[in-house]
Structures are given as structure tokens and as C-alpha cells.
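Duplicate of #3305? Posting structure anyway:
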């Protein structure tokens, strides 16, 4: 090869790593190596390899977390070839969601490995003009150049980002010819809105365009968001979710974001808002710039904030509505000292998950939470303190970490703890995770399903978990006294919870009318601003001390 390419091998098994490195070096590559994701991330930052060969299951930082950390904000992401002993479908889907194309199962077939490495490096030498071989979609750098040019002359532009809902599930079903047909359909639809007909590839299943001046003041037709394609002789429907942002470069908040940061933040926002809620149209204006800025700030500064103790816990009491007494509390995370103002978890927890910091963040929460509950039980021996674990943390050894923290505890505070998992995080449940949770429950720790009714959990998941607590999402509580359908949904959820032997807790209760309606439907426990706002630990302790 005329120009020697650099390949990084990240593998915790010394023998496998040595064999892979030898094969790659013999094939003419410059080879770097690391024992886990943490070392691998440092090597990427120092040497900028052309490709990473990476194991999935590793200590400290696994392969998926490394991939997310490496390619978080990169316009030209480093390709990964993933290795694993787990040939299961869940890992393959997880990898493809993160952009992994090559996924090899151990024991490694070195001929396949070398072919995958050569192919991926060759594909990375993409044209500076086009995002793919079809020549239909222009590349990211050209979009960013256009936005930066507008920024220099302070010219307003309208950007539209479009993603195919459930793109992964659709693309898996398509043959190569059908995939090309899909791309052609997308280009035909979007080019009608695009300045000079130019549509830019942003990520798999996601495209961007600068909107034509004559369409910016009008609504996007609903027909633009629903389409169909022939797959194996059967017509299959697919939908777009779209985001439009009016980019006013005179805005001080916006000018703090460069073009790349702006579009990346919009793409992430579109992904989160449209997840599980297809065919969304999102309009972002001046009021939304702060949200974009906050997301970017969190991505850049969260790691240091965790290390320097800049975060804090506050506590929102849980109330027995029949007696009015405090029976528990939920530990909530805040970032009060951020340079752009107080940040809520809605901004920095998703950033932690994207950066592979969720497990580190949850360990920090656990250490502070255990200190707090030891003080609470002095005044309320039966109080329950709940806290949320992210789906990423479930698979990163955090339940086992909590178990280790509690095993030598003389106070027996495990019975005062309640782990909250969301319905959507149940996809991270593995036999190992379930075993770690089972050990905690043997100590007395309870399990709660948070935001119940908002995710994708099946009854099979709930049966496996045998949760003691179900928390009803605030979206069902807000209009419970005005909307009959909300009251019926809540009544059904309460009936299901009772049938499973679960306690029901309603979240987001803000009025007496809501509290009364919930109590009449059979929900005894609740939390929300009507009872108490989140408060520092010393204020909660004062409430518990009061007669």
C-alpha cells in the first residue's frame, strides 16, 4: 500500500490481541494496541488511527462506549470492526445503531478480519463532494461550509434535518437494489425543498438541507412525511421525522455554536424527540437555542464536572396521600454551577450516555445517595430513597457495584433503597444484570419501573423483573381531572399494578384536583410540586425530624 494506514486493536485478552496485531502488521498496517476502552480512547486521541478493531465486552469501558466516545462529534467518524464472543442479535442491532457495519464473532477468522479492515479503510477515503457512491447526496463538509459562509456575513438560513423513522429495521429488510431505490426516493422528495436541489448526507438514515427561500414561510406538507417502497414484492410504508431550525446568526446564543455543533445538536435532538414517536415535525426557534447550547456544554464539560464534584443531589419527598405523611423520597441530580446556568438532568444525562459516562455518573450518585440515606433512617427508619439507573449503567456493572457497597453495611440500609429503571432501559437486561439485581433484592432493595406507560416494556419483561413499585408518568397525571381518557388509562395501569402485587406511585402531581382524582382511582402514593419541590438534604432531614 502506497500510504501506510494505522489500525488500533482494543482487546482485553492478551493472546487474542497479540495474534490480531501480528496479522495486521504482517498485512502492512501500522499497529497500535490497547487493553480496554479507556486506554483505547487515549490512543485514538493521541494517534488518530484510520480504523479501530475492538472487542465489545471489556472492563472499565466496553466497545460500544468507546465507539460513542470516539465518534461523538466527528464529521468523519473512525470506522470500527467489532469483535465479540456473543453472536446474538441484540449486540448486532446495538452495533448497527452506532454505525458498525463489520461485526465478527470470535474465534476470529483472520482472512475475514483483514478483508473487513481493508474494505472499511478504502470506503473511508470518500469523495470530498459526495456522501455516498450514488453521487446523489453531498457530503457533510460542504453543508458546514455553506453554514459557515452564512455565519460570516450574518445571513439567516433555514436548515431542515430529516430522518427515516425506524431506519435500522427498514434497512435490514432491503436488498442492495432496494436500498438504492430508497435513497433515490429520499433525494427526490427532499430536493424539492432544498436550495439549488442540494441534499446533504448527515448519518445513516439522516439527511440535511438548506431550505429554499420561497418555502421557508410555509408549512411542510404532511404528505412529505409518509412514503412507501416495494420490498420483496410487498409495499412497505415508512415515515420521516423532520426538524426545521431558523438559523439567525445575529443571536448571541447561536453564535457560540459553530456550524458543526449546531447541526449535530439538532440531529441529536431530532433522534431523542422522535424515538418511539414517529412522524414528528419539530420547529426550533430562538427560544430553543439555549437547549442546544446546554446539550453541547454538557458534552464538553460533564466529565470534569463529575471529577470535580460540581454536581449535587436534591430530594423530592414521596407522600402517602391518605395520611399526608412522607414515606420516601427520590434522589434527583442537578448541575448548579454550570457556566451557562443551572442544568437539569434532561440536558446532561443524555450527554453522559452518548459519551459513555453514564456508569461513572451513576456511581457518583450512588456514593452520595448512600451517605444521605444513612442520615434519613436516623429519623425515619422505614423511609425509602429511590434513584434512577440508566439503561447503559445496567449493562456496565453498576448494580454489582451497588451490591458491593452494601454487602458489609451494618445499618441494613439496602431495605431503604429503591432502584428505578425505565421501560425503555429494559432492553439492556441480560442474565448477568438480572443476577446482580437479584442479589440486591435478596438484601432487601426494591425495584421500581419509572415512567410506566411511556416505553416499550412487554408484560413478559415485567413478569421477569417482578418489580415492587410502578411509577405512573406525569403525562397521564396532568389532565387526569379533565380528560376522561387519561383517567381511564391511569385506572387501567393501577389495575395492572395491583394484579402484579405492585405499589403505585404517581409522578408530577401539581394540584389538589389531581391528587384527589388519583386517590379516588386507588393510587395512594404520589410526588410532585403540590406536595413538595425537590430540596437539599438538610431541608428534607428537617421535615423528617419534625413531629
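Output from current build:
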Amino acid at each position: 500500500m502506497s500510504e501506510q494506514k494505522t489500525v488500533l486493536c482494543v482487546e482485553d485478552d492478551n493472546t487474542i490481541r497479540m495474534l490480531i496485531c501480528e496479522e495486521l502488521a504482517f498485512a502492512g498496517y501500522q499497529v497500535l494496541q490497547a487493553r480496554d476502552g479507556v486506554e483505547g480512547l487515549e490512543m485514538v486521541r493521541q494517534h488518530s488511527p484510520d480504523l479501530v478493531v475492538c472487542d465489545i465486552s471489556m472492563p472499565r469501558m466496553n466497545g460500544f462506549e468507546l465507539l460513542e466516545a470516539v465518534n461523538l462529534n466527528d464529521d468523519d467518524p473512525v470506522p470500527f470492526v467489532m469483535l465479540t464472543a456473543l453472536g446474538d442479535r441484540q449486540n448486532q442491532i446495538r452495533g448497527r445503531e452506532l454505525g458498525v457495519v463489520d461485526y465478527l464473532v470470535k474465534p476470529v477468522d483472520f482472512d475475514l478480519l483483514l478483508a473487513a479492515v481493508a474494505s472499511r479503510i478504502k470506503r473511508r477515503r470518500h469523495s470530498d463532494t459526495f456522501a455516498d457512491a450514488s453521487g446523489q447526496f453531498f457530503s457533510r463538509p460542504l453543508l458546514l461550509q455553506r453554514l459557515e459562509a452564512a455565519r460570516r456575513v450574518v445571513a439567516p438560513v433555514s436548515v431542515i434535518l430529516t430522518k427515516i423513522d425506524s431506519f435500522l429495521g427498514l434497512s435490514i429488510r432491503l436488498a442492495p437494489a432496494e436500498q438504492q431505490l430508497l435513497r433515490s426516493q429520499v433525494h427526490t422528495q427532499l430536493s424539492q425543498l432544498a436550495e439549488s436541489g442540494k441534499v446533504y448526507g448527515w448519518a445513516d438514515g439522516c439527511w440535511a438541507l438548506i431550505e429554499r427561500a420561497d418555502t421557508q414561510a410555509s408549512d411542510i406538507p404532511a404528505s412529505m412525511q409518509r412514503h412507501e417502497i416495494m420490498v420483496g414484492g410487498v409495499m412497505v410504508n415508512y415515515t420521516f421525522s423532520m426538524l426545521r431550525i431558523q438559523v439567525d446568526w445575529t443571536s448571541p446564543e447561536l453564535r457560540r455554536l459553530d456550524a458543526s455543533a449546531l447541526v449535530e445538536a439538532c440531529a441529536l435532538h431530532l433522534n431523542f424527540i422522535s424515538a418511539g414517536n414517529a412522524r414528528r415535525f419539530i420547529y426550533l426557534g430562538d427560544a430553543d437555542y439555549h437547549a442546544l447550547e446546554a446539550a453541547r456544554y454538557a458534552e464538553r464539560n460533564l466529565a470534569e464536572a463529575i471529577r470535580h464534584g460540581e454536581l449535587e443531589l436534591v430530594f423530592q419527598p414521596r407522600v402517602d396521600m391518605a395520611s399526608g405523611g412522607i414515606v420516601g423520597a427520590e434522589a434527583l441530580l442537578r448541575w448548579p454551577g454550570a457556566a451557562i446556568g443551572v442544568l437539569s438532568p434532561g440536558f446532561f444525562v443524555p450527554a453522559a450516555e452518548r459519551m459513555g459516562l453514564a456508569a461513572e455518573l451513576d456511581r457518583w450518585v450512588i456514593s452520595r445517595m448512600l451517605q444521605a440515606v444513612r442520615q434519613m433512617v436516623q429519623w425515619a427508619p422505614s423511609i425509602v430513597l429511590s434513584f434512577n439507573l440508566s439503561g447503559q449503567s445496567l449493562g456496565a456493572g453498576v448494580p454489582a457495584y451497588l451490591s458491593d457497597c452494601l454487602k458489609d453495611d451494618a445499618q441494613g440500609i439496602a431495605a431503604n433503597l429503591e432502584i428505578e429503571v425505565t421501560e425503555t432501559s429494559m432492553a439492556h437486561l441480560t442474565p448477568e444484570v438480572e443476577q446482580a439485581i437479584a442479589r440486591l433484592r435478596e438484601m432487601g432493595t426494591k425495584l421500581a419501573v419509572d415512567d410506566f406507560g411511556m416505553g416499550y416494556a412487554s408484560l413478559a419483561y415485567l413478569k421477569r423483573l417482578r418489580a415492587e413499585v410502578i411509577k405512573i408518568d406525569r403525562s397521564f397525571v396532568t389532565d387526569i381531572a379533565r380528560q376522561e381518557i387519561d383517567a381511564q388509562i391511569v385506572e387501567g395501569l393501577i389495575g395492572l399494578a395491583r394484579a402484579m402485587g405492585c405499589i403505585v406511585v404517581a409522578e408530577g402531581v401539581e394540584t389538589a384536583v389531581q391528587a384527589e382524582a388519583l386517590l379516588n382511582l386507588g393510587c395512594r402514593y404520589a410526588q410532585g410540586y403540590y406536595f413538595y419541590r425537590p430540596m437539599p438534604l438538610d431541608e428534607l432531614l428537617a421535615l423528617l425530624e419534625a413531629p
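Confirmed duplicate; merging threads. DSSP finds 21 helices and 19 strands in the chain. The first strand starts at residue 6 and ends at 10.
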